[in-house]
Design a protein that fits this description.
six-stranded mixed β-sheet, four-stranded antiparallel β-sheet
Length: 579
């Protein structure tokens, strides 16, 4: 885990090295001050020598100035290193997520990934900054103070060592109890973020069904669970402070009492006792700071583990050693294909054998959950088959460069989203260097031009995140236009005209037939009218091919297709308006 995270220090190695160096210099300078203070008392004040007071006082001020300078430099370099480290962590996680296949993404919830890139990275960043400064400062202060204490009076210093051993037992006992709880805390963060994300994305439905109170109750339960776990962990960590204060005050009382006896006996000077108490306080304060680091590392260890899980996740699908970068044509072949989303799980597709010609228009129809979306996901290699093979252009899709394959196999999903930016910005996701005229042409084919031209800013109209300021049908037509700009050899419409009226749907299909006849078109739909003019229609049932033929022949031979047709057409449930 640490090895994975440390790779992300990257260009901030210099700051990572300088921060401890400046901290060490700061500690060295500060710990010389009590030593000089003893000289001020013994050789200046008690001896009545003001010249020594001024000399040693000047040395003290100089040491304080150097301590201030080194402290400022240590703080700046530690902040730069920790902030840069956090930036690299987020960048590395985001970059790795972009390489994930759908099956990789399925392992992590969206809310979980958001939590890891925000809360978890912030925890690791804070811990890293503390490690660079306090985790260097405290051990150095502790070690140097122990040496100076033993140099002044070895017997009195033993008091501190006994207390230190007792304190170590308390700290390790608390750590053993709290680390497992913090792991649960961050899983609860995922649940809370997931609840917020679900509610905000479906806020219109919540309002429509007046379910605000119900949603509030669900969120309160999640938040209350997070609260209870956090309080439980923090309550255990709170034991650190009273244990520390007992040690601090106990040591001060014991050393003051014993030191007074040594001074009366003449075996110790007042200046030495003052220095000893200063060093003991430095030791105890360094222990307190170590306790803070201990708390932060305890909290961040769970976060670090969650981050490393994302960074270490390897894509399930990779390009072959010598990938093919050009598709010969848009022909598609399914050769005895079976597919399950999880190893050993139930197959979503079973023994699929299909042969689709280049340029053919194929409609795909079937009940909910019959495997329509699963089938087309295999063509652009969003998932890999469990058994058999899928070929596009006569080659197994696993032989292609995935980027090139997906550029040539355009998929328009029912819930395809738009991104914040202008309409032109969104369209150019399909072709980065597309001219405005090319964008307009694609929109004409997708019947999107009619509503775009009604906007005051036309193609420069700003689209809100997710396309919130356009209707579902407008969003779908913009997504179709975006896919057409790729000039694909295969175009897949996965129920992507469900929010479009039947007349517009018919015009879109007519435009496809006229303007992109060489493109293979797969149209998934629940409406008979959307697929009945296709060259052939595929009927799926429970993950298997139930029929694959023309509209007319399926009406004669396929019971499922006949049932759908009667429900929609003969019963008047689906129709096309005059175009």
């Amino acid at each position: 885990m640490l090895k994975t995270l440390m790779k992300c220090i990257g260009q901030y190695k210099r700051e990572t090295i300088l921060a401890p160096v400046f901290t060490a210099l700061e500690v060295f300078v500060e710990l010389l001050i009590p030593f000089v203070t003893a000289y001020i008392i013994d050789r200046g004040l008690e001896a009545g020598n003001m010249r020594n007071v001024l000399i040693y006082g000047g040395i003290t001020l100089l040491l304080a100035l150097f301590g201030l300078i080194f402290g400022a430099l240590a703080g700046r370099t530690a902040a730069a290193a920790s902030t840069g480290f956090a930036c690299n962590l987020r960048d590395a996680m985001f970059s790795n997520i972009q390489t994930f296949s759908f099956s990789n993404i399925d392992k992590f919830s969206t809310a979980g990934l958001v939590t890891r890139m925000t809360t978890d990275v912030t925890n690791v960043q804070n811990a890293y900054q503390m490690i660079l400064r306090i985790a260097v400062r405290s051990p150095l202060t502790l070690a140097f103070s122990v040496v100076m204490c033993f140099a002044i009076n070895a017997r009195l210093s033993l008091v501190f060592l006994v207390a230190l051993v007792a304190l170590a037992f308390v700290l390790f006992g608390v750590a053993n109890k709290t680390i497992p709880i913090f792991r649960q805390v961050f899983r609860k963060y995922d649940d809370v973020n997931g609840r917020v994300q679900e509610n905000l994305s479906a806020i219109r439905v919540v309002k429509a069904y007046v379910r605000e109170e119900h949603e509030n109750e669900k969120f309160t339960r999640e938040a209350d669970g997070l609260y209870r776990l956090t309080v439980k962990a923090e309550a255990l960590l709170a034991l650190n402070r009273p244990a520390m204060m007992i040690v601090i005050y106990g040591c001060i009382i014991a050393i003051s009492w014993l030191g007074a006896h040594y001074i009366v006996a003449g075996t110790m000077t007042t200046g030495n006792l003052t220095s000893l108490l200063s060093y003991v306080m430095s030791m105890l304060m360094s222990l307190m700071m170590l306790s803070m680091i201990f708390v932060m590392i305890t909290m961040s260890s769970a976060s670090a583990r969650r981050i490393s899980e994302v960074l270490n996740e390897q894509p399930d699908m990779t390009d072959p050693a010598e990938p093919v970068t050009e598709l010969a044509d848009g022909s598609i072949d399914f050769n005895n294909v079976s597919f399950a989303y999880r190893a050993g799980g139930e197959c979503a597709l079973k023994n699929i054998n299909l042969h689709i010609h280049s340029g053919e228009t194929v409609g795909i129809i079937g009940g909910t959950g019959c495997g329509k979306s699963s089938l087309v996901s295999l063509i652009s290699r969003l998932y890999d088959v469990t058994e058999g093979s899928v070929e596009v252009g006569g080659l197994d899709v696993r032989r292609y460069d995935m980027e090139e394959l997906r550029n040539q196999v355009a998929v328009v999903l029912q819930k395809n989203v738009l991104f914040s930016g202008t309409i032109l910005d969104n369209l150019r996701w399909g072709k980065e260097d597309a001219t405005e005229e090319e964008c307009r042409e694609a929109c004409r084919y997708a019947c999107a031009d009619e509503f775009i031209e009604r906007f005051p800013d036309g193609y420069n109209t700003w689209i809100e995140q997710g396309g919130a300021n356009v209707s579902g049908g407008q969003r779908q037509r913009l997504c179709i236009a975006r896919a057409l700009l790729k000039s694909p050899k295969v175009l897949i419409l996965d129920d992507s005209t469900s929010a479009v009226d039947t007349a517009t749907d018919a015009r879109i299909r007519a435009a496809f037939a006229k303007h992109i006849p060489g493109t293979t078109k797969l149209i998934i739909s629940q409406r008979i009218s959307s697929v009945q003019d296709a060259d052939r229609i595929l009927v799926l049932d429970n993950g298997s091919v139930n029929g694959f033929d023309t509209h007319e022949k399926l009406l004669e031979t396929n019971d499922i297709y006949k049932e759908i047709y009667r429900a929609q057409i003969e019963a008047g449930g689906d129709f096309d308006e005059a175009v």
